Every structure is written in structure tokens, then in C-alpha cells.
Amino acid sequence: MNISNLTCIILFLSVFVTACRKETTVITKACISANRYSIKIHDTIIFTNCSQADYAMVGFKRKGEKLTFLTTDKMLSGDKLSKTFSDTGIFLAVLNTYMNSKNYYGDMDSSLAITVLP
Q1: What is the mean pLDDT of residues 20-40?
Q2: Cα gap 21→43, rounded to integer Å
Q3: Among 70, 77, 78, 110, which is most exposed with the fewest C-beta within 10 angstroms?
Q4: Structural domain contains residue 83
Q5: Cross-sheet strand order for the sheet of 80-84
Q6: Is residue 78 a part of any domain in this protein?
Q7: Contact, 51 vs 77, CB < 8 A?
């Protein structure tokens, strides 16, 4: 076997191996749950990160207001976060998920409405 044939075989194998290698794609689904959806003012509600993302953050807002994050701590799947509301009204709890990998797709946020009564 001469050098040019060997070079062709090596080139073919390197292209074939590269083409066959699959990158893993992670499918995520953001998920937030709460122990209650209607509470009285100054009561505490517990939120759970039920997503499968690498980590998440929870924020709260009223309709038309800017989202304010309760904490900058990263919540892992299954982590819980408690919140006490000092105002009445309907609040939106928003969970934003994040992945460390660039090969992912899916729902990046999830939300639920909380009613705070007098």
C-alpha cells in the first residue's frame, strides 16, 4: 500500500467518524409548583422547582410590572423557596430555567398565579 492510498483511507475514516458522532441534545421543561395558590396577606407560600434544568431562579410580579427576583441563588431541581406577601392582589410567580449545555431546547420559563387576600 502506498502513501497516497493510506492518506485517503485515513482521511475517509476521519470524515466518517466525525459524521457519525452525535451530540446529545437535552430537552428541558420548566416547571414551578406551589403548596397553595390562594393565601391571606402575611401568610407564607412554598414554591418548588419541579423542572429538569440545571438550575432555575424564581421571580414575582403583578400584571404590567417588572419581574423582581426573590433571590439570586440558583435553585436545583426539587429545591423549595418560601415567600410571604405583604400586599394583596394577584401575583405571577415566574420560574426561569437555565442549562449549562448549549445543546438544549424546551420551555425556558413557567409561571403560575397566586392570589393574596386581605
Answers
A1: 78
A2: 53
A3: 78
A4: yes
A5: 32-34, 44-49, 80-84
A6: yes
A7: yes
- Could you give the number of structural domains in the chain? 1
Looking at the domain assignment, is residue 45 inside a domain?
yes
State the residue range of the domain holding 104: 25-117
pTM of the model: 0.70
Angle, CA 95 vertex, CA 97 and CA 87 arms, to 5°: 160
Q: What pLDDT does 43 receive?
A: 95
**93 neighbors 112 (Cβ within 8 angstroms):** yes
The answer as to whether 29 is a domain residue is yes
CA distance linking residue 4 with residue 6, whole number of Å: 5
Domain of 44, CATH number, reads: 2.60.40.10
